Amino acid sequence: MKIQSRSLVLLASACFATATLFGQTQPDPAYLTTFGAGTVVVSHSGFPAIAKYDASQVTYINGVFHIKAGESTTVNMRAIFDAGKNTEYYMNRLKTDKSQNLKHKTAEHVVWRIWCSHDGNVNQVTEKTPWPSKISDIPLWAEPCGTVFFTPNEQTMKYLSGAVKWDESGGNLRAEIGAYIRDANPGCKLYVVFCLAYEYSYSGGETEYKWDELSQKWLPQISAGGIGYVYSDPIAVATIVLD
Description:
Blueprint: E1 6-9, E2 19-20, E3 23-24, H1 29-34, E4 40-43, E5 60-61, E6 64-67, E7 76-80, H2 87-97, E8 105-116, E9 146-150, E10 161-164, H3 173-183, E11 189-202, E12 207-212, E13 217-222, E14 226-231, E15 236-242
Parallel strand pairs: 1-9, 6-15
Antiparallel strand pairs: 2-3, 4-7, 5-6, 7-10, 8-9, 8-11, 11-14, 11-15, 12-13
């Protein structure tokens, strides 16, 4: 099973809810009442519209989303923000809370990060590390098995929800986790984090700062040069079980 690592998408329109002529479309209140803010809603039956929650698209049991493993499965996702908050709010908070590399910022991104419970040979990789139990937890057992980047613009910064499609030109969930879903055994899992990031660039020999998840500290190091990313805390998350 081959798992593609990342797609960089420069079109921001696919990752957010559609704007109306007179302002931003408000999320259906049923999203908040059913799942609560901070949840990535996982649809197995089409794209989850922002203005109308469709319960038939979702199998949600005890806080976990269920989808079927197999080649015919498609997955679309919507991130539920805190009421009234938009992408710009979360981006500004990221730059305030994690400013260590901000003066070297070169770009801003909306990011979907996905971790798999099993590797490409369907061997479990999570035995010695706990599954995240709260929204602030980041999986420590491996790097993400799939990551999708979107670059927002002035308009999409105003959007009140985030979303990503199974199929989208240039980068999508199919490219990132399609093979895993196709080949997974029942019981395999995915952990999804919706967050923001800013990209930065250093020249070799400069001091840059890396966030260490284990120590929960910023650690200075001499840069070898190149780009890096500072990620926000998770804004919305989901656990998916493949049946």
